[in-house]
Amino acid sequence: MTRQMVMVGFLQAQNCTNLPSSWRHPESRDDSMSADYYQEIGRILESGKFHMAFFDDRLAMPDRYGNDHAHTVEYGIRCVKMDPVIVLTAMGMATEKLGLASTCSTTYYEPFDVARRFATLDLMTGGRAAWNVVTSINDGEAHNMGKDAHLDHDFRYDRADEFMEVVLGHWDTWEDGSLLIDKNSGRFADPTKVKRLDHKGKFFKSRGPFTVPRSPQGHPVIIQAGASGRGQRFAGRWGEVIFTAARNLAGAKEGYSAVKNEAAKAGRNPDHMFLCNLTTPVCGATRSEAEDRMALIEKLPLEIDALSLLSEGLNYDFASKGIDEPLTTEELQGMQGILGIRDGVLKTSGKTNPSARDFVTFSGRGQTADAIVGGPKEIADKLEEMFTGGGCDGFVIAATCVPGSYADFVRHVVPELQRRGLFRKDYVGKTLRENLGLPRPPAGAWKTRPQIAAE
């Protein structure tokens, strides 16, 4: 079968999209705290045959800038953050085949809890769930979850590796065929096929037995988005759908090869993972119509949007210095969180000690500088170039207006991609794994991966 794109809708259970100014768009719905808001998005994505709807998440509103939340609330910078798993459940009731993915942190939850939440979501949606594994990024999240400070970057990933072993271990403890539900004999399940985990490791202890049987797809799909070297190793070991944020084909190809090679080193088949690049399309029936829409969108962001999100993403208070004052090497090295932001600014700006204004200019944070603007042909051309050029296996479609951005993409771009044979015309199965083309994992398969030589 000809290789085709994986398509993911990028969402947040909050008052705006990943673009904090999206709520200011005159065509955006104002009821982002209602079930109908998300159910409409789900129906649109499913009509466009998207593989999944994916919810990003944080455990705190952005309050690192100036160490205060007032600006966040006043300007609506991701200040509302609901539980995405519950929102996904509402979305799942309005869809039948769309995959449903949510972020959940390994730093602030227990493995048994995460395993049970996503295994339950998987059963309730007929095998359509996915878990985005994150280690969280800043002190605000730590403070909300009863900690004084966020854990160091590499330590979080070391801990997350064991977290994955516990979660997958619990998901494996109910074997296929364990359920009997025999009313005549009175036997509900075969106890020889349900085991305790009894995990005792460096970071976690978890006994079991687990309380949720396996779903039609085996267990939820694993999503990851590690950008650092340590993050890429983690993604290569565990991830099945990998989110990337490359700004050009050359950068995308470099990251693509790095993660695929990490998968091979971990004894996995690199073809059993899909790298999907974050993309913000602004589309219309014609290029002229799309340009008019972009002109309006460009008026929405405020400088405070970018400064707030940069402070949140790098766990550094950008209000602590003048906006044009160069940051010291020590300050740059002390940043935590999404280090790809810092490294990207250093590389793109060409400056050893960029200022806060440089971070605003070159990071794209809180802005739409990287948006692809055009009619169906122009958008499809850009996606095809990235896809066929070896930069990704699909795309994570971000919105500037809700639900209009998703509807425009489905109305204008999806038919053009289908015409070119780059995107499917229908779902091939009922579970997320079936629709991604991923094999159903037998219990314990992650422990016995075949060794595959790295390229």
TrEMBL record:
Keyword entries, A-Z: Flavoprotein, FMN, Monooxygenase, Oxidoreductase
PANTHER family, per the entry: ALKANESULFONATE MONOOXYGENASE-RELATED, C2H2 FINGER DOMAIN TRANSCRIPTION FACTOR (EUROFUNG)-RELATED
The protein, known as: LLM class flavin-dependent oxidoreductase
Family statement drawn from the similarity comment of this UniProt entry: Belongs to the NtaA/SnaA/DszA monooxygenase family.
Residues the record lists as binding FMN: 57, 103, 153, 157, 228
Pfam families per the UniProt record, alphabetical: Bac_luciferase
NCBIfam families xref list: FMN_nitrolo
Native organism: Bradyrhizobium sediminis
InterPro entries in UniProt: Diverse_substr_monoxygenases, Luciferase-like_dom, Luciferase-like_sf, NTA_MOA
GO MF term (any one): monooxygenase activity
Domain spans labelled Luciferase-like: 28-389
